[in-house]
Design goal:
Strand content: 25-35%
CATH class of the largest domain: Alpha Beta
Structural class: alpha/beta
Order of helices and strands: HHHHEHEHEEHEHHEHEEEEEEHEH
Largest sheet: 8 strands, mixed
CATH topology of the largest domain: Rossmann fold
CATH architecture of the largest domain: 3-Layer(aba) Sandwich
CATH superfamily of the largest domain: Vaccinia Virus protein VP39
Low-confidence stretches: 310-324
Oligomer: single chain
Shape: globular
Helix content: 25-40%
Radius of gyration: 22 Å
Bound molecules: S-adenosylmethionine
Number of strands: 13
Number of domains: 2
Length: 324
Amino acid sequence: MQKTEDKREFVEGYYGKAAQQPREDLCCPTSYPTEDIGHIPQKVIDRFYGCGSPMSLAGIKEGEAVVDLGSGAGIDCFIAAKKTGSSGKVIGVDMTDDMLKVANESKSEVSSNLGYENVEFRKGFLEEIPIDNKSVDLITSNCVINLSPDKRKVFREMIRVLKDHGRIVISDIISSQKIPQSIRDNEQLLGECIAGALTEEQFLSYLEQVGFYGIEVLSKTYWKSIENIDFCSITVRAYKFEKTAGCVFIGQHALYHGPFKVIIDEEGHVFPRNQAIEVCTDTAQKLSEVPYKGMFTILEPDQTTNEVSCCSPSATNGNGSSCC
Ligand SMILES: C[S@@+](CC[C@H](N)C(=O)[O-])C[C@H]1O[C@@H](n2cnc3c(N)ncnc32)[C@H](O)[C@@H]1O
């Protein structure tokens, strides 16, 4: 099964059936706390085919715009609907009509339990996300990327729709080593989120290659082994940063506070603890925002290291408090 269309057709048929008739054995067991799912109809919970709990780890804030890719019967969207509140907006994207049907049928019960409606489901592919450019604060996905025939395209699409400083929190299955063709060609294992899994290294480096930064593995749990290959569920967070200031060196320096002796970012910048390293305008801006906010002091061109380390009243540690 080589062609993108063939794979999509198979996955759509597979999850169409899993929407009509719930299956308990489809992916690795995972669950959400009762307080997160109390407002969600049982038929959605029975069709939860995720491998992690991205909505518990995403730090969702009220009013955020959230997109869940491969939303299935809608469980993660409905959890996000509660966390974002009435001022937030949640969009689920899925290609399978039977899944969208269950999700849409459940919307009114969720909104009457919450007292507001802020969820929408759209039919579409992960590789061509039907969402405007730069319109989303958070993208989540739960056990879906492994099913995509073009994972790099999915990651590029995520970058396109995220706002600057937006984040992704994705749960998926990864393998301990590259998967042999015999497993790749096994349709049953494709449907079960095994045959299309990337290795952890591939997964993280694809994210870096399309431009994500601040990449962090938030959780990793062993699931099972097949032909001596271990399969785990991981949840990863990463950020988008748009270079708008221009890579210009105007004399700004970044001072890393610690606790590590030295750190390296995705672009290869090395920051030894407590040493002022010259940075360009883009990097200075990037280090001032999440997830690095508070870890660095950015020295402007007119400030010297001595001024900062010797109790300059203008020197702050990024949290707004004095350095000394
Ligand atoms: C393993 S299920 C997970 C569903 C949901 N995230 C959950 O946790 O219950 C995978 C879902 O992704 C959808 N899907 C798979 N590949 C897709 C693609 N390329 N584009 C859009 N949807 C896709 C399937 O239709 C299915 O609903």
